[in-house]
Amino acid sequence: MPATSNAETLMSVENLCVTYGRGPSAMQAVRGVTFHLGRERLGIVGESGSGKSTIGRALLKLLPTAKITSGRLDFMGTDIIGASERRMLDIRGARISMILQDPKFSLNPVQRIGDQIAEAYAVHHRGARGQAREKALEMLEAVQIRDPERVYKLYPHEISGGMGQRVMIAMMLVPEPDVIIADEPTSALDVTVRMKVLGILDDLVRSRGLGLIMISHDLNLVRSFCDRVLIMYAGQVLEALPASELANARHPYTRGLIAAQPHIGGDRRPLQVLRRDESWKRPLAELNA
Question: Which end of the chain is more exposed for a tag (fewer CB within 10 A), N or C?
């Protein structure tokens, strides 16, 4: 597996497994996932149902009905698997934040925008409630929202999808975490707004020196936005490589995904169809063994 692009490792994940159910009916949604995250942008890409979002939630222990096991799941010296729920409450939001896919399902519809961001700051900075409003306005300005004072007083139904996603980014970044998990944060946006939101997220990640895990099904997005990419299929990481080398992927599944994408200016022949076989369930290291 390629090394992280930064010498400092924020998170180490080794042999992560997530299982639902027990006995003969048990289903392993994630199997043997291993990766390390530095102060970089790591993409996790794959089809729907491949286990991408499950990994993101497992890192925060947000899967109460699942059994999470790992040879190692370390976040800056903290053993996540062995951490108590009280300890996880200190980590979630303050140290590791998660940006979800659609803001209309994540924002409280009966609470003003600014109050929700201020609350996210106050919960993790005890005794700083007087600064919460000021920090919320600063973050609204940081995500390039015009007239933060006006938007602060609005309710979620009064803003657009693009603005809602910026508010979600502001809410997740205001506690000043070390790691951001972004679960398809731009899939509900049109192309123009998507690029603006990604640009904002990129600027904030670079300026604050954060580690970012970008979960997506969009190969072109992770190719242009991320530093490294993990390719997932059926709960496993099949291949890990630098995003700039995605076109040179060696696993047949990754090559199949790339070939199935339409290209502007390409020929008009029908796109290739993914032909699944047993070899696709084996990581690249096993295929080369």
Answer: C
pLDDT digits (tens, 9 = 90+) for 257-283: 888 877 777 677 777 777 777 766 788
β-partners of residue 74 are 12, 79
Q: In sequence order, what are the residues at sequence separation of 6 or more whose Cβ sits closer than 8 angstroms to the Cβ of residue 56? A: 44, 98, 181, 183, 213, 215
**Domain regions of the chain by residue span:** 1-95+181-289, 99-176
Residue 2 above 50 pLDDT?
Answer: no
Query: pLDDT tens, 48-59?
Result: 899 999 999 999
Structure tokens at 207: 């300026």
* 3-state helix/strand/coil string of 133-170: HHHHHHHHHHCCCCCHHHHHCCCHHHCCHHHHHHHHHH
CATH of region 1-95+181-289? 3.40.50.300
Rounded to whole angstroms, the Cα distance separating 123 from 144 reads: 24
pTM: 0.88
Q: Which residue in the block uniquely carries the two structure tokens 């640009």?
A: 199
- Name the helix (H) or strand (E) containing 215: strand 211-216
